[in-house]
Specification:
Elements (H helix, E strand, L loop, with lengths): L1 H35 L5 H36 L1
Length: 78
């Protein structure tokens, strides 16, 4: 059970980590455009807000899965 938990944690971490990196890079581009354009449209702000919310949700999901898999590994080690 310990190997399953560790494999699941690594796989989940890689998948969610890559998704967060993609979101952060696109968010960086959005903020660079905002600094160049003072009169940005409201849609740009809404898109950035949605990306930040998605990053927070992904982090919460990752940490929840990490705790669950850690408990599986701890129980399997006993």
């Amino acid at each position: 059970m310990t190997e399953f938990a560790l494999f699941g944690l690594i796989f989940t971490g890689l998948f969610i980590g890559l998704r967060i990196l993609v979101l952060l890079s696109s968010l960086k581009a959005v903020f660079e455009n905002l600094s160049n354009n003072v009169f940005a449209e409201k849609d740009v702000y809404e898109g950035a807000k949605k990306q930040i919310i998605e990053i927070v949700i992904l982090l919460a999901v990752f940490f929840t899965i990490a705790v669950i898999l850690f408990l599986f590994a701890y129980e399997g080690a006993m």
